[in-house]
Amino acid sequence: MESRFGANRSQREIDALAERLGEPAREVVSIHRMNRSRGPAGFPISSRRTAEVVLVIPRPGAGVLVHTKKFYPNGVWRLPTGGLHPGEAIENALLREGREETGLLLTPIRFLFELRYEWEGSDKSFQSFGFLTTPTDGEIKSNDPHEQITAFHD
């Protein structure tokens, strides 16, 4: 039987990552829907995207890599993230998103968190899996023009 945290992703996969990379902080966030079709910040309730990986990439000088995109409000910087494809393993998504968004070959070293967002009055949920990766001082460049990344900062 799957736990409340594994409803979208295989609990066996999540447990194996936790055993290998450390037990993550786990939190379920219940969100009151703002209207019938959208959740917080305009996230569409009907979106097929159900999970993402969040990359914490240490950089020289004790910083972490953040980026901004063409469509972000001015001054907004975020950790690199990326959606999981249907049936894609969490760790494979982390490696793929690392290459696509930063051009880096990353290695996860710590499973930091698993967040599950649930919209009240809906069966919609969304999971975020956060990982600390190996430090890197390699050249940063987006390999996916669809991401619309305009700048990196650490």
Which short descriptors sum up this protein?
two-stranded antiparallel sheet; globular; disordered N terminus
What is the residue-averaged pLDDT? 85
Low-confidence stretches: 1-7
Q: Report the sheet with the most strands, covering strand number, pairing sense and barrel closure.
A: 5 strands, mixed
First-last Cα distance: 42 Å
The share of residues in extended strands comes to 25-35%
Oligomerization status of the protein chains? single chain
Computed CA radius of gyration, to the nearest angstrom: 16 Å
Query: What overall geometry do the principal axes of the alpha carbons give?
Result: globular
Find the count of extended strands (DSSP E, 2+ residues). Answer: 9
Approximate helicity band? 10-25%
Spatial strand arrangement across the major sheet:
1-7-8-2-6
Structural class: alpha/beta
- Order of SSEs: HEEEEEEHEEE
Number of helices: 2
Give a structural overview.
This protein has a 5-stranded mixed beta sheet, covered by helices on one side. The longest helix is centred in the middle third of the chain and has 13 residues, at 90-102. It contains 2 helices and 9 strands; from the N terminus they run αββββββαβββ. With 154 residues, the protein is of the alpha/beta class. Residues 1-7 have low confidence and may be disordered. 16% of the residues lie in helices and 32% in strands.
Give a concise summary.
The protein has 154 residues and is α/β, with parallel strands linked by helices. The chain has helices spanning 11-21, 90-102, and strands at 25-31, 51-56, 58-59, 63-64, 66-69, 81-83, 108-119, 125-133, 149-153. The chain is built from two helices and nine strands.
